[in-house]
Specification:
By secondary structure, this protein is an alpha/beta fold. The protein contains 11 helices and 7 strands. The strands form 2 sheets. A 4-stranded antiparallel beta sheet has the order 2-3-1-4, with helices on one face. A 3-stranded parallel beta sheet has the order 6-5-7, with no helix packed on it. The protein starts with a strand and ends with a helix.
């Protein structure tokens, strides 16, 4: 949000009514106003919270005070820089990152239920800051990365059956020898397994059938396993299962698939942040919340991955 236009709420409250003063102050603070001076509160003209000024103006007048909403157009870059500092959320993000780092150290001690609750609370706190962060920058990205690292740590710590890194060579395979097969993986598929199932069905074995198992030993006889210890396709070295499948079947020459692989890698095990990662994760979480069965989730996720892959291909082909 780079506009130099702001909306200012100019007000004066009755000094005797402390209850009203506190209520108005809390409301102004809650919507993220910048304080230009006592009685002058600003919001960027494009902020959704500007509509709240109407109710606040009415509330102040009803309490016997003075209130007026006016436009403020800054003329110079210096003025804009000065006003923009009023909306600096660096301190809030720094405090949140400190809490996230402390939480990361306490996950094992807390146990899964309490750890889940703590991570959800920190995620809510992050979104609360974002809602009034009209000029997000490096501090926002650092908090995103810290939160992603915490969520990855939670996933690795409490997700049963998460594969360990195998040390082996990844041979090139002929996809024609892997047609019409049964592919087995763990129940409740998430990022790597969802993306791998999509890749298998879309590029490797279009007639693939999937089986969702509780434990590796439950793999059906003759089925190909993926994303668990001892599976035919699983984590190898620093590569997650999706990346191993790409390499195994010669799909790693596709720039769009490689770009998607970077996103899957980051969401599954962390590492170098990827701009699109959190957006993709949010959409997949929505699909997971709606799906009643694993097959439904894989089908919904496949549609999402189709769109992402198509977008990446378009970007890669643009001169």
């Amino acid at each position: 949000m780079n506009t130099r236009n702001f909306i200012a709420l100019v007000l004066s409250l009755p000094s005797r009514n402390k209850t009203v003063r506190m209520r108005i102050w809390r409301a102004l603070h809650g919507i993220g106003c910048g304080v230009l001076r006592d009685g002058v509160y600003l919001l960027p003209a494009g902020a959704a919270q500007v509509s709240d000024f109407v109710d606040l103006e009415s509330g102040v007048k009803a309490a016997g005070g003075f209130a007026m909403t006016v436009e403020l157009n800054l003329r110079t870059s210096t003025q804009f820089d000065q006003v923009r500092k009023l909306f600096d959320r660096t301190g809030k993000y720094t405090s949140l990152v400190t809490q996230i780092n402390a939480a990361k150290k306490s996950l094992t001690r807390l146990g899964q239920p309490r750890a889940d609750t703590l991570v959800k609370r920190l995620r809510r706190s992050f979104h609360e800051i974002v809602e009034t962060d009209f000029y997000s920058g490096q501090a926002n990205r650092q908090a995103q990365d810290a939160l992603a690292g915490l969520e990855s740590a939670l996933q690795r710590l409490f997700s049963t059956g998460e594969p360990h890194k195998a040390k082996r060579r990844i041979p090139r395979l002929d996809p024609m020898r892997y047609q019409g097969r049964v592919w087995a993986t763990r129940k409740k598929p998430w990022i790597d397994r969802l993306a791998s199932a999509w890749l298998i069905k879309r590029f490797i074995d279009r007639k693939a059938r999937f089986r969702w198992i509780d434990k590796p030993k439950d793999r059906p006889k003759g089925a190909l396993g993926f994303d668990f210890d001892g599976a035919d396709f699983t984590h190898v070295g620093n590569r997650v299962t999706f990346e191993v499948l790409l390499s195994s079947f010669g799909l790693d020459m596709d720039p769009a698939l490689n770009r998607l692989a970077s996103t899957i890698h980051f969401l599954d095990v962390g590492g170098i942040p990827v701009d699109d990662a959190k957006g993709l994760e949010t959409i997949l979480k929505g699909a997971r919340d709606k799906a009643r069965r694993d097959d439904e989730l894989v089908l919904a996720a496949a549609s999402i991955f189709d769109h992402v892959y198509s977008a990446y291909r378009s970007t890669e082909s643009t001169p």
